[in-house]
Design brief:
By secondary structure, the chain is an alpha/beta fold. Helix content is 44%, strand content 16%.
């Protein structure tokens, strides 16, 4: 049996990060140090089941804090750093781009620089085996037309929102630290994630909550925008595969092969809820309310994930319908979690973003 791996995970209390932490502890026998700032979407309840696990350690802090990052690196000597930490909601970036620049650009750059300084002190064998994995998004590639081929790893970057611009910048810095300094960087770009523990400002949990409450379900424009949907468990399996066998300096696209229009997603959720928990306002499709589209709303994203499938033998396990049904049931079964995350800030955000459209 090989040596137990130790991972420094940033943003591990968020939606995707917490899924990776739970998976790494459960399946990989890894030790995890989780650095998270615990902003509105970083939720300690996501990791409550492992908070007393001796192989899990939490550190409250910011990826922009070089002193704290350096201390964690020296103390724990990780085998890899996996960077999930990011401001990630497009609508919030439109309202105020500044936090996205501070975290996604400056924070990532500080993190890379601090890791590089520490990495240079390592013994050759440890330095050679070390990996820095930067988790990013397909939104950096811009928008596709209805019949355009899906994004590949060589698609030129063309970000259209402040969020995607900040993530594109962070990707460029990660790549530059490999090309310029030799830091063993890996980059992943994923499609839209869904699954348990997603903060309910994102489409799928937002629709579930609105539909359960019998409230109007806001849908931008005519609901024609198309996204490729990736179950978060499939995403984390792919990240683990890239971490284990990915070629340093390379980018790997991760997709679910499940393109759907936003309206199709919303209507499917309504149908699932009507079947699982019928309500007085069923059919819940009648709750759909088309609202003014957001500025710069990309029409379509689609991921070609042939590279990771061929090189690393990864394919998504979830089909969208069954994965979405499982997700709906999770939210129905975890009302305590929902009550915790629905803070005053979250309610104010919904009011400012949707009620005024």
């Amino acid at each position: 049996m090989g040596k137990r791996k130790l991972y420094l995970v940033t943003g591990g209390a968020g939606f995707i990060g917490s899924c990776f932490v739970l998976r790494a502890l459960r399946q990989d026998g890894a030790t995890i140090v989780n650095l998270d700032k615990l902003t509105y979407s970083g939720n300690p309840a996501n990791l409550r089941e492992v908070e007393n696990n001796p192989d899990y350690h939490f550190a409250h802090g910011d990826i922009g804090d070089a002193a704290m990052i350096g201390k964690l690196l020296r103390e724990h000597q990780p085998d890899a750093v996996i960077n999930f930490a990011a401001e990630s909601h497009v609508d919030r970036s439109i309202a105020d781009p500044t936090p996205f620049v501070e975290t996604n650009v400056t924070g990532t750059c500080v993190l890379l620089g601090t890791v590089l300084e520490w990495w240079r002190t390592l013994e050759p064998a440890k330095a050679q085996d070390f990996r820095f994995l930067h988790v990013s998004t397909d939104e950096v590639f811009g928008s596709l037309g209805p019949n355009d081929p899906a994004f590949t790893e060589s698609t030129p970057y063309a970000p259209n929102s402040p969020y995607s611009a900040s993530k594109a910048s962070s990707d460029h810095f990660a790549r530059a630290f490999y090309e310029t300094y030799g830091l063993p960087v890996l980059i992943t770009n994923c499609s839209n994630n869904y699954g348990p523990r997603q903060f309910p400002e994102k489409l799928i949990p937002l629709v579930i909550l609105k539909a359960l409450a019998g409230q109007e379900i806001p849908v931008y424009g005519k609901g024609e925008n198309i996204r490729d949907w990736l179950h978060v468990e499939d995403h984390c399996d792919a990240i683990a595969r890239v971490l284990e066998g990915g070629r340093i300096g390379q980018t790997y696209n991760i997709g679910g092969r499940s393109e759907r229009s936003n309206l199709q997603v919303v209507e499917t959720i309504c149908e699932l809820l009507d079947g699982i928990r019928p309500g007085p306002k069923a059919p819940r499709k009648q709750l759909i309310n088309f609202v003014k589209d957001r500025p710069g709303h990309d029409f379509r994203y689609a991921i070609n994930c042939a590279k990771i499938e061929k090189e690393l033998d990864w394919t998504p396990k979830y089909d969208f319908r069954s994965g979405l049904a499982e997700t709906v049931r999770w939210y129905l079964d975890n009302t305590d979690w929902l009550a915790e995350v629905q803070s005053g800030e979250y309610r104010n955000w919904l009011k400012s973003n949707y009620d005024e459209r």
